Structures are given as structure tokens and as C-alpha cells.
User: Fold this.
Amino acid sequence: MTGLAMTTPAPVPQALAVPADADAAGASAVGAHGVNEDILLSLANVESAYGPIKAIRGVSLKVRRGEIGAVLGSNGAGKSTILKTISGVLDPTRGTVMFKGEDITARDPADIVRRGLVHVPEGREVFPLLSVKDNLLMGAYTRSDRDGVARDIEQVYGYFPILRERQAQNAGLLSGGQQQMLSISRALMARPDLILLDEPSLGLSPKLTKEIFEIVVRINRERGTTMLLVEQNANMALNAADYGYVLENGRIVMEDRCDVLREKDDIREFYLGMKETGVRGERRWKKKKTWR
Assistant:
């Protein structure tokens, strides 16, 4: 990775925290990189909860148009909650979500989809009793341009040829990897400006995970589709994305360009499983992360 897809930012200080100020909710602002940024999505001081349990706390982040953003974190850190809050599945208790310069906080999910933001949920969530082709057509339900829909179906078949072979088969009979391909393709059929990808590698083999991420990057580069993905597989996410955030216990504790994050000692040891060893080494349970 060489950094952002649309801009060439200057080096940034280590472990920057996103400020929870009014500018964080703007559609275009001068950000931490010191350059004018085309902000497609921004969250400012967002908090969400499940009943009395607060899942995310004061989350602020930005996704620039044309880039792939990534949120890294362990299971239960709050990654999926961020995406559910953005897409309207979960109403935040505090904070603001801005998309294309408009406030979409707590809006109806159907309205958010019509605005050009699509959520690929964890676990694929295909329509199991519908055929592969009908699943794709469901993704295009907001569109009326039949010729364009037909062209886009052919394009997603080009990304995932197995879907063409299985187009008449019920989606519930596909393998997990094929269902993930279908879920991503269904999202593409809406012609979105931004796709939220929730754990695209979940339950997939390393080989299939690599294939899925290669296609995700290809879609971003060829179609210019902006993406925000959340992943436990930090290695794949950092290699695919342009800019990354690290989430722990519902809070963002670190952010930077992904090529910079890959070189940070904490990321290498705690997320990539890599560390420098001395003569005796250091017991992992005794070591603390520098952002704490």
C-alpha cells in the first residue's frame, strides 16, 4: 500500500485521536493531514448502546471519497456496532453521522440506502430461498434503469464468475465463500457511493479470504467505490485499506495510514502476531500497549 487513493498526505504524528469537534461532522474539511480532504462519511463523538450496555464510546472517524477505510479490533470491541449505527440499524445515543454533507443520524435504513450507502452485514444474510440472480435484483430494488441493472449484473459476474454458473441456484445452497461473494455483489447492484463491509473474511479459508480482499480492492480501484470495512484479520485489512482505525473496548485508540500502522510495534505484536525477540524475550502478559 502507498497511502490514500485520492490524496498524498504528509506524515502524521503517532497514535492520533480523532477530535470530537464540530469540524469532524463536516463533508469537506482541513483534517489532521493538513490538506483539504473530500470527506464522504464522518462520525463525530458517536455513542451507541444495547440497553444499559454501552458498545461504542465517543467514536469519531472519517472516510474520504475513493478510499478504503478500515476499523481493526478484537471480537466484541464494537466494530459491527459502528456499521449498524452508520446504516441506521441501531440509533446512537449521542453524536452525529454525516454522509455526503447531510446528517443521516438515526435515519431509516431504507432512506440511507437510497442516499447511496449500503451495508454488507456480518454473516452474509443472503435471501436463502431466492436464486442468486434474484438476490442480485433485490440489491437493485431502488433503481429503475433496467439496462443499467443488466449491465451491472454482467459486471458482478465478471468479478465473481461462480455466481454466473450458480445464478439459477437458491442462495441458501451456496458455500460460505460464495454467499460472501453474493452479498458483496448484491451491494454493488445498488450502485452505492459507499459500502460498509462487516467481517468479509468471517468463516472463510485463507485462500478464499485473499481472493475476496483482492476483488474488494479491484472494485475500489476500477469503480471508485468508497469502502469502510471492519475486520479481525488485521493483516488482510491493513494490506487492502488506505487508512485505519484501531478500536478497543468501544473507543478508537489509534489511527494512521495503513502503511504506517503496519510498522507500529503494538500493531505488529498484538494484531499481526509479530515481535522482536531478545535473548530471554518478554512475557506477553507483562507487556502493555503504548496507547494505554
